[in-house]
Amino acid sequence: MSANGSPAGQQPTATYDSAFLKACRREPVPHTPVWFMRQAGRSLPEYRKVREGVGMLDSCMRPDLVTEITLQPVRRHGVDAAIYFSDIVVPLKAIGIDLDIKPGVGPVVERPIRTRADLAQLRDLTPEDVSYVTEAIGMLTRELGATPLIGFAGAPFTLASYLVEGGPSRTYENAKAMMFGDPELWADLLDRLADITAGFLKVQIEAGASAVQLFDSWAGALAPADYRRSVLPASAKVFRAVEPYGVPRIHFGVGTGELLGLMGEAGADVVGVDWRVRLDEAARRVGPGKALQGNLDPTVLFATREAVETKAQEVLDSAASLEGHVFNLGHGVMPSTDPDALTRLVDYVHTRTAR
Q1: Catalytic status, residue 38
Q2: Which of 12, 99, 3, 6 lies closest to 56, judged by CA?
Q3: pLDDT tens string for the chain (355 positions)?
Q4: Looking only at Cα atoms, what is the longest distance across the chain?
Q5: Closest Cα to residue 122, out of 160, 156, 95, 94?
Q6: For the chain, how big is the Rg over CA atoms in Å?
Q7: Is 344 noted as a catalytic residue in this protein?
Q8: Distance between CA 296 and CA 276 in Å, rounded?
Q9: First CA to last CA across the chain, in angstroms?
Q10: Concatenated DSSP letters for 101-123?
Q11: Cβ(130)–Cβ(122) under 8 Å?
């Protein structure tokens, strides 16, 4: 397969030679590509306008809204890739898990998974469960043309943590209690979630996504030995499942500096790095054969234009020796970020790295 999901030997799609996909493949690029996690969202007034009166999960299931929201930052900022607008709990909702995304709180699960009998809530995900995803991506790829679309999903560990805790947590005591106290149940839970996650990514790729990102938002709460034993096998299963499509696979977590090598080992082609580790040091930890993504501190965008450019240049300098680099933030765009600061940052990176 080619890196855009087309069978090898066929004419590449319009996105194949994009700067973003070239960087993911560790090929020479015309400039360092830029996109931002959470680039489509609350920092944009046009996003807030179209979301008025529409719940988060409802907005993820409306192809017209998904298309408009996904396109907004591409139009405004001139980023090198779009990321599909959704939420990591969408596939769980699609298979019938009783959950909701409550404003100011996050995903809340009505019946947390705490026993083996509770696993019955987790059935396989089918394309029919998320037909709105297929429809939305079809609409998006027609609009995006040569701009790649990144599909995404939550990693099994992060999904399991929400399901076991019943919602967001700072300590993950219930999830870790299961992981340490009932490792067989934990392994079975993550294995089922790996299948659901892989199914969700496959739908996105088959509909036209040019790359995928696996978000393990909470993996930074784990020690490396626990990650290797209790989490890596499920993430690796997801990456193996989508490998035949040939699209770049990105792996990202927050606070995962100690896990970077393991996250690359799970099967990613590109490892996302948060702002706590310089990219040259991250490359040493990850090892050869991987591109890196990152890693400007999102709070830098609240500083002066000169300060933003200084810090962005530090990121570019630390990436100078990388095999491939996709410029991003070290986490998502914060809701109160000035959109113009993002637009200026894209222009700065493009200008400074033009070859």
Answers
A1: yes
A2: 99
A3: 434 444 333 345 889 999 999 999 999 999 999 999 999 999 999 999 999 999 999 999 999 999 999 999 999 999 999 999 999 999 999 999 999 998 888 899 999 999 999 999 999 999 999 999 999 999 999 999 999 999 999 999 999 999 999 999 999 999 999 999 999 999 999 999 999 999 999 999 999 999 999 999 899 999 999 999 999 999 999 999 999 999 999 999 999 999 999 999 999 999 999 999 999 999 999 999 999 999 999 999 999 999 999 999 999 999 999 999 999 999 999 999 999 999 999 999 999 999 9
A4: 58
A5: 95
A6: 19
A7: no
A8: 9
A9: 29
A10: EETTTEEEESS---SGGGGGG-P
A11: no
Query: Catalytic residue among 16, 132, 162, 227, which?
Result: 162
For residue 273, CA distances in Å to 6, 71, 157, 170, 220 come to 28, 25, 18, 21, 12
Active-site residue (options: 16, 26, 47, 51): 51
pTM above 0.90, yes or no: yes
* 189 closest CA partner among 125, 120, 267: 120
| Other residues' Cβ atoms within 10 Å of the Cβ of residue 16 | 18
Distance between CA 316 and CA 294 in Å, rounded?
A: 10
β-partners of residue 294 are 327
State the number of CA atoms in the 13 A half-sphere of 264 facing the CB: 20
Instruction: Given the residues 87, 182, 226, 280, select the one marked as catalytic.
Output: 87
CA atoms within 13 A on the CB side of 292: 31
Task: Tell me: cis bond preceding 295? Omega within 30 of 0 counts.
Answer: yes
Is 284 catalytic? The answer is: no
Catalytic pick among 38, 76, 192, 249: 38
